[in-house]
Amino acid sequence: MRKCKLSHHEKKKTDQYYRETIAAIITPPGDGGLGALRIAGPDASAILNKLFQPAKDQIRPNRPFHLYYGHIVDCDGEIIDEVTVVEMPAGRSYTGQAQAEIFSHGGYYIMRKILAEMVGLGARVAEPGEFTRRAFLAGRIDLARAEAVADIIASKTEYAYGAAKKNLLGRFSEHIDKMRELAVGLLSEIEASVDYPEEHLEPAEQEQLMVTADMLIDMIRELLDSYQAGQIIKEGFKIAIAGRPNAGKSSLFNLLLNKNRAIVAPVPGTTRDYLTEWIDLDGVAVALTDTAGLRVSSGVIEKAGQDSARAIMSDAELVIWIVDAARKRWQKELAGDLKAYSEADRHLILLNKIDKLPGEELSKLKRESKPLAALAISCKIGAGFKRLRKELIDRITRQMPDLTDRLVLTSERHRTKLANALKYLRRGRKGIASGESPELIAFELRRAVNEIDEITGRIYNEEILDRIFERFCIGK
User: Can you list the domains of the chain with their CATH numbers?
Assistant: First the structure.
């Protein structure tokens, strides 16, 4: 069972908050064929009974988890909409409280009117994430799984969904619980030395404690090492399209998006700011940015655009450097550009406009491109696009984890807590190896356990909960 460390004031505030009945529209804004509303709290059933009029008076909705058909009526008995409703009793609902859901027609006005009737009968409009927050407070889910709810809603791609689903199903929490078990075992052994100072650790016992500490340290390090891939899963793989003016950056941007998003013109310097769009590339969210052309410029606006381009390139996982291969001096220009603007292991060179080259020059270009690992393409006619797409997928895949058998760290909060726990464990392990005072070792190990406990919510406070749930949508 979760150990909640709340101050008296925080506990009083939480108890009062939990006694209120809350309601919200739980389908996205806009009109649709079907809409849904949720109500949870001690008065949920009473409010529903006043609002809901069964199609047949003799059939009252008194069986949980059964769907009943009828109408929602206002305080004057006027029908608002025909609906179906379902009730869930306390202890067996998502929130852990008495809860009901109403399925109406999906018109925005209709749902707002039903919600207003709920509020008029004593409910209040739910805050973002409040239903899930109550699920956590009721012990239905731990804090890591609660955060996974928001992640699974925000999932845009297969990778993001896969990572969030594992967390929602509890695999991440189970792994954290195993870490905690090891850490608490270490702490118990050290605290026994504090309680019975005459019983010094034998060399074999000391060795075993260090083995356990090393095992735990390795588990945490493995998770922390996955964070970079986790950020790609959650935030997207960042690709910057860069190069000299009029090399074809905006044409490539539009080609990858499969729509005309950026202005394409034969005049150099058309793009003076950057454009970013998201695409799904083989299950990975990719943030694709078209940057301003890089050249010597005296214009203030164009220079600002180029400064933005350099910042975007430095932050990108991959820089596509596109070259106008129809220019006579492209090789000399490319050598200087890459030295000034990019890193060899983060760039992909594209030799564009091969449609302008006669057969002999094209063959020569392809030979010259091999030492650069460059791809010859034409954004105008789409030549080389399939090979480019495959190369991008290969580059991204090399940085992505295998989600079939490992967990990936996607939360900055979890990363911070695990990094702190690792720091305290290393101090504790060093103390064990050097025969340091058990009190000092126990102090470090206890801090490590506390950091681990904050991940799943065994230890929490209102500030932590506020920060976590404020990013949720209303209705979840």
Answer: 8-141 (3.30.1360.120), 153-226+407-456 (1.20.120.430), 238-399 (3.40.50.300)
